Structure formats: C-alpha cells, structure tokens
Amino acid sequence: TSCGTYRLYTRPLLPTWRPRGRRDFQLLYIASGKAHFHFGDKEEIITAVHEVVVDKCWALAAVKLPFTIPTLNKLRQMGYKIGLITNGGHNPQTLKLKMLELEDMFDAVVISGDVGVHKPNPEPFMVLAEKIGVDPSEMMYVGDHPLNDVEGSRRAGYTPVWVRTTGNWYLPELERAPYEVDTVAELPELLAKIDK
C-alpha cells in the first residue's frame, strides 16, 4: 500500500486533497475517522485506510528540522533530562522517530497509544515524569498545541512552553503558557535565563 492508495479511498471525501505539511496530514487522519462513518461496517476498508494513513502517510509528514538534534544535544550538555510524549499509535510514532533519527535522543519516550489515553489527559505526562524520575513540578513541557501540549502539561503539574508553530493562539479560552518560543532552537537560551 502507498499514500496513493489512500487517495483512492478518500477522493470522494476530500476531492482537493494535496498534502502540504502537518496540518494536511491531521486532516487526513480526521478523514479516516469520517471514512468509518461513510463506509459503515466494512472493516476491511477501514483497516486499510487506517494502515495507509497512520503507518505510511502520517509518518511521511514528519519533517526533519536542522536545529532539532543540535538543540537536543545542547540541552543534554546543559544537564537536562529529555523526554517525549507523542499522541498516536506505537508503530507510526516509532517510525517517525526513526525517520527523523531521533529514536536515541530521549531519556524516555511515551506514546499515547501505549498508555491508552492521549494528551491532554494527564496520564501520559505522569508516565513520562515517572520514567524520567523527576517530579512534574520540576519539569517543563514544550509543545505547539494549546490544548494537548500547553493545557495538558499544565494540568499535570508541568510548566508549559508554547512553540508558536502556527503563530496564533487559537483557543482564547485557555491560559497562554508562561514561556513562548518560535522554535525549539531557542530553548537553551530560555533555560539559561530561567536558571539565573
């Protein structure tokens, strides 16, 4: 199967679909849920759609940014433990980490599909804190989603840092993070200022 095969299933649902990045693939993932309702009980079709979207196309949406690994290395040199929480299933998230050459960059990785609940539920955050061996009140969580990352981590007792990927805080009913950065490359400088 390939991403092209997925197009065959979704063309009636998303006739103008042309993946152009993370947001489009999020729409694809949502479309697979809609496909379930359109196709009714045809589980073989739903399974095929899910396999293609999640195990193939979703992973291909991962973009390797040049500053990510140097930033993680710098944070490690500064003495920080580094963890990752990612929403999704085990296989596609593991594949994304491998494709991005990040599988060995974290002290702990929590995949929500392995926990049984997704961010913003506090449970993945609590699991990460336990794996890292640090109390949530002493941890920062860096993410770009106002609800899943910022509010979710705050509810779990972390200090949130919002990455302004969209440049737009589109959930005004939620309190903004106390710290904001444009990219994760700014984290070492931010943490150096906080630690003074």
Task: Describe, in plain words, how this protein is organized in 3D.
It is built from 9 helices and 5 strands; from the N terminus they run ααααβαβααβαββα. By secondary structure, the protein is mainly alpha-helical. The chain has a 3-stranded parallel beta sheet with strand order 3-4-5, with helices on one face. It has a two-stranded parallel sheet with strand order 1-2. α1 packs across α3, α2 runs antiparallel to α3 (43-60) and α3 packs parallel to α5. It is globular and about 35 Å long.
H-E string:
HHHHEHEHHEHEEH
Helix content: 40-55%
Find the count of extended strands (DSSP E, 2+ residues): 5
What's the shape? Answer: globular
Separation of the first and last Cα atoms: 53 Å
Major β-sheet strand ordering: 3-4-5
Structural class: mainly alpha
Structure annotation, total helices:
9
CA gyration radius, whole angstroms = 18 Å
Short description:
This protein is mainly alpha-helical and 196 residues long. It has nine helices and five strands; from the N terminus they run ααααβαβααβαββα.
Summarize this structure as a short list of keywords or feature phrases.
single chain, 196 residues, mainly alpha, three-stranded parallel β-sheet, two-stranded parallel ribbon, 9 helices, globular, disordered N terminus
